[in-house]
Specification:
Blueprint: H1 3-13, H2 18-25, H3 29-37, H4 44-54, H5 58-63, E1 75-80, H6 101-114, E2 123-133, H7 134-143, H8 146-157, H9 162-177, E3 179-188, H10 202-207, H11 229-233, E4 235-245, E5 257-263, E6 267-269, E7 272-283, E8 293-294, E9 296-297, H12 300-305, E10 316-324, H13 327-331, H14 342-358, E11 372-380, E12 383-390, H15 393-396, H16 398-409, E13 422-431, E14 441-451, H17 454-458, E15 464-468, E16 476-479, E17 490-495, H18 507-516, H19 529-534, H20 540-557, H21 567-573, E18 576-578, E19 595-604, E20 607-615, E21 626-632, E22 640-641, E23 643-650, E24 652-655, E25 658-661, E26 667-674, E27 687-693, H22 695-699
Helix pairs in contact: 1-3, 2-3, 6-14, 8-9
Length: 700
């Protein structure tokens, strides 16, 4: 940084005017002004006097790689309570996602992908779990000024509400076990937190604002501005520190821009009310709203004490989650009898989540680099206990990786003739015109089908279609209905939008359309309020038509069925039951009641994906049955589970959860995905029963 701008910044932070400095060092104000504007430079003996006035050393002035510590030391600034007495008992955005390291890995890595800087090179993301104990923990708490924070934590922990209870648990564990887990997310070849502390830009979008999605590309995965909330949701203490290397200078600097943000509920400390968030930084002398902290340019020693040292000067950001925890793994009973160490369990879950969600982004072609490289490592007090593990898509998703690589290398075939080949076909997405005047058209998405690997068969994860768009993150995994029993196990991949290739017709329009059809979790394509607003209330039917055409193309491309008794499909069919109870409207003949004729399903992730065929006798098309799913447990009443998604496939519509049949139809097909939040038992440990019930029974 040039001497003039650097000196001006130090004077501002020290609340010292040019006249004050001139008087302190025995020079004129005009001389100081000339240094700041770059019209002159001070002599060496004058530099020494400037160093004394600023309370620093000659080395700091000559290198100018960090700020002096004069006047305004780094501290915590808490937002005062609202003047109207309003109270926020937590950040609502954090409740949009579960406190789950798998969810964190998906959201944080997606954000890094969206900010990839050099489009010819991958963005590199590293997750580091670091357990601190004893003196190492004590030094870290001193670095973050723990004693200043403790009264606020204790006040928040005393409150009988959700966030307060989480904080109380975090404080108790740290006190009783003398242990704290840090989880750092580093990305390289990314934009970094550029922009002013308060004005529009990446920094303000992440550090200062909620629901601000500041994305640099139209094919970005995020669109709601909620994903960053997973960083704070994963912290039991609601605390995240950041160190960013900028891709474009701010205040003449690019390296070691530091700031911290704390999210607590409303609390009262020493008789004063505090609204919730707080920031760790340099007090802003120009703030008109009171005690406000802004980012600062730190020295290397400070960065090291905060465990935020980056490994190169390449642009990107390091997020340090203080007090990281993984509630989801404990709820799901994922403890290993021989491994009660949470950091090792979290390590495994991070590797699994990265491989499951970003295998396609990490896949390379013969002449095309991956979009992403990802790794996980685990430390304890600075010593490595689990070496850095680079996520390899050929290991985590071998068959799907083979399919995508064949597409990237141009080695696909029209139809399978031997094992290991990848068949390709295009399927049409009819993109509607948007309300803002955007054009529509027929987009040709790419469908890839290949044989499933033995690993897929072992975990009963096959005969599915994985869907994605431009950033090649897995959006949705769904089963294919109507397959003959004994079909050769397969895996299919649907590349839509920019993932189908920049030369695919209407790729940009399809990318925008599908992006607006995704919820905040970006885990499916369907009806959303944004889709309804930007296009039309019926626009989601274009996605249903794409699904129908995709499944039809898959059935046409799959290999010749095996003999009956294929292990995977038969084992799964034994776990499915058709509900026997048939309830008729009083005025209808018993012989006219529709019945479930066939049911096919796969367990994808934690959910049941089912496809059901309904047989409709003469006169039965007037009935409006409601499909009801129940877990088939060994004893007791079968628990009812809700549908996360219920979609009409053939000869019917779904209206308020009920089937409305096409007049005169003799059969109809629908598909559904169960809502895992309503599962009382993991899907892998149960069977499934689907029944058709009357509207009255379904509401009972």
């Amino acid at each position: 940084m040039d001497f003039g701008p650097w000196l001006a910044r130090q004077l501002k932070q020290s609340n010292m005017s040019q006249a004050d400095l001139a008087q302190e060092i025995g020079m004129t104000r005009a001389a100081v002004s000339a240094w700041i504007t770059g019209r002159a430079t001070p002599r060496e003996d004058t530099v020494a006097r400037i160093a004394d006035a600023l309370g620093t050393d000659l080395g700091t002035i000559h290198t100018r790689t960090a700020d002096t510590l004069a006047g305004l030391p780094v501290s915590w600034s808490h937002r005062p309570g609202y003047a109207d007495g309003g109270r926020d008992f937590g950040n609502a955005a954090a409740f949009a996602f579960q406190a789950d390291v798998s969810v964190l890995a998906r959201e944080a890595t997606q954000n890094s992908l969206d900010e990839r800087l050099d489009r010819n090179q991958p963005v590199r993301v590293r997750y580091t779990l670091h357990e601190l104990t004893g003196e190492t923990l004590a030094r870290f708490r001193d670095a973050i000024r723990w004693n200043d924070l403790l009264p606020h934590y204790l006040a928040a922990a005393e409150q009988e509400q959700k966030v307060g209870r989480v904080i109380a648990t975090g404080l108790r564990d740290m006190r009783e076990q003398d242990r704290l887990v840090l989880l750092r997310v580093d990305d390289y070849n990314a934009s970094g937190l550029t922009g002013d502390d308060y004005a529009d830009g990446r920094f303000a979008a992440v550090v200062r604002r909620q629901l601000d999605s500041h994305k640099s590309t139209s094919g970005a995965g995020g669109s709601y501005g909620l994903g960053k909330a997973t960083l704070w949701a994963t912290s039991r203490l609601g605390l995240v520190l950041m160190n960013s290397t900028l891709s474009e200078p701010h205040e003449g600097r690019t390296e070691r821009r530091l700031v911290g943000r704390l999210d607590l509920p409303w609390r009262e400390v020493d008789g004063l009310p505090w609204a919730g968030p707080a920031w760790f930084g340099r007090p802003d002398p120009e703030s008109k709203s009171g005690d406000v902290a802004r980012s600062w340019w730190a020295d290397e020693e400070t960065v090291e004490r905060l465990h935020l040292t980056r490994e190169s000067a390449e642009p990107g950001t390091s997020f340090l989650i203080v007090g990281a925890h993984d509630v989801a793994s404990l709820v799901r009973g994922e403890d290993d009898e021989n491994d009660d160490d949470s950091v090792q369990r979290m390590h495994r879950r991070l590797v699994d989540a990265l491989g499951r969600n970003f295998w396609a982004a990490m896949t390379t072609g013969a002449s095309r680099p991956p979009l992403l490289e990802a790794s996980v490592r685990t430390l304890r007090n600075g010593a490595e206990i689990l070496p850095e593990q680079r996520v390899d898509p050929t290991v985590t998703q071998p068959s799907r990786t083979r399919a995508l690589r064949a597409f990237l290398d141009g080695t696909t075939v029209e139809r399978h003739t031997e094992a290991g080949q990848v068949a390709m076909r295009t399927v049409t997405l009819k993109v509607p015109a948007g309300a803002a005047g955007t054009s529509g058209g027929e987009h040709e998405a790419v469908l890839l089908v290949t044989d499933a690997e033995d690993e897929d068969l072992r975990f009963n994860k096959f005969n599915t279609v994985v869907k994605m768009r431009g950033n090649r993150m897995t959006v949705q995994t769904s089963g294919v209905y109507g397959l003959p029993v004994g079909t050769n196990p397969f895996q299919a991949v649907l590349l839509a939008g920019k993932a189908a290739g920049t030369d695919a017709p209407f790729a940009e329009e399809a990318e925008t359309f599908l992006r607006t059809s995704e919820p905040p979790e970006h885990n499916k394509w369907g009806q959303t309020e944004e889709l309804r607003t930007m296009y039309s209330p019926s626009a989601f039917r274009r996605i249903e038509a794409l699904t129908t055409e995709t499944n039809k193309a898959v059935r046409d491309l799959i290999a010749v069925p095996r003999k009956k008794g294929s292990a995977g499909t038969e084992k799964l069919r034994k776990k499915l039951s058709l509900g026997k109870k048939k309830v008729a409207r009083p005025q209808m003949r018993k012989s006219a009641l529709p019945t479930l004729d066939d049911l096919q399903a796969t367990v994808v992730g934690e959910a049941w994906n089912v496809v059901a065929e309904v047989k409709i006798p003469d006169g039965g098309d007037a009935w409006r049955p409601t499909p009801v799913a129940k877990l088939d447990v060994r004893s007791g009443v079968r628990p009812v589970v809700r549908w996360a998604e219920l979609v009409a496939v053939k000869n019917c519509e779904i209206v308020d959860g009920a089937l409305h049949f096409v007049p005169g139809a003799r059969s109809a097909t629908f598909r559904g995905t169960t809502d895992t939040s309503t599962h009382t038992v993991r899907a892998a440990y149960t069977g499934l029963v689907v029944e058709l019930k009357s509207e009255k029974e379904a509401q009972a």
